[in-house]
């Protein structure tokens, strides 16, 4: 499995890439999974399936940890694997993100496809493809897996090489300050002794005058030391390439995004991931009969979560009188606590059903006709 962080790159670029992936994963981890049935008005929010999706996908992870880990694997390796564990009756019992060292698709003698996982501890495990939900990114060159990260590697490796050269230049400029030459031949031990004595006498704060007296036995040639400047523009270019590769901008990483920036990030990164994981878990959790009865998994998040208070207020003003939002849904938008009977919907009397309006108008016309008679 290819990973940008496993190729010995410099710490600077590791941190930049990891911080970008961390920002994406933290927002994705806020998604809420839900089992819905399309031909019903509302799913059972207290069902075991919803408890697994929303609270504890497996005994070792919360729903936040689960989604964070899946998203991290997805953006680091361009592939993420989730073991869909079921009981003997075919009911879901747990969801486990898998972190293999290598992955291989194999086919048995009956043409059934399995996935061979080799883990870091050396263990090899085979799972039927129906037991594993698979999320792929950059799904192009390979028929079954997402492509590797070679598209960004050349730029990062070049920048890393430049940084290594700069590091050596900084070391050399800080270490070599001059050349001290003695006129007579000295043993290595004596040279070291005289050098230490010379430095202690003249390269300390005690030498206030800054003057070095020399006799004919030695010559001292100072070297012109030039400061090595850190190539900040180059670092910024690489950082921008990393962000472009992941499809985000710096405001998402440092948390300075505004309402428009969040909406763009949600629609370009979070929403496609939510659609992909919803579709894959629906396929792997439910039987064909259950899918035929419109059972499916959805992962949702409020698009208005990071909208300004003014925008939220305008939405509430427009939608609440239409009965589109309940009182508690409106309170959720404002991050306020629920109230009693808040799940009820209210509607302005300015809006009525079309059939009622037609009946009213017809009744009015009949009344006018009777008066005319």
What keywords describe this structure?
alpha+beta, three-stranded antiparallel sheet, disordered N terminus, 373 residues
What does the model show?
- The protein contains twelve helices and ten strands.
- The protein is of the alpha+beta class.
- A hairpin with a 5-residue loop joins β4 and β5.
- α1 crosses α3, α1 runs parallel beside α6 and α4 packs antiparallel against α6.
- The chain is elongated.
- The protein starts with 10 loop residues before the first helix and ends with a helix.
- The N terminus is likely disordered.
C-alpha-based Rg, rounded = 34 Å
> What's the average pLDDT?
79
> Helical residue percent?
40-55%
Number of E-type strands: 10
Uncertain spans: 3-10
Oligomeric state, counting identical vs distinct chains: single chain
Number of helices: 12
Distance between the termini: 89 Å
| Structural class determined from secondary elements | alpha+beta
Neighbour order of strands in the largest sheet: 3-2-7
**Main β-sheet description:** 3 strands, antiparallel
Q: What is the strand content?
A: 15-25%
**Shape verdict:** elongated
User: What sequence of helices (H) and strands (E) makes up the elements?
Assistant: HEHHEEEEEEHEHEHHHHEHHH
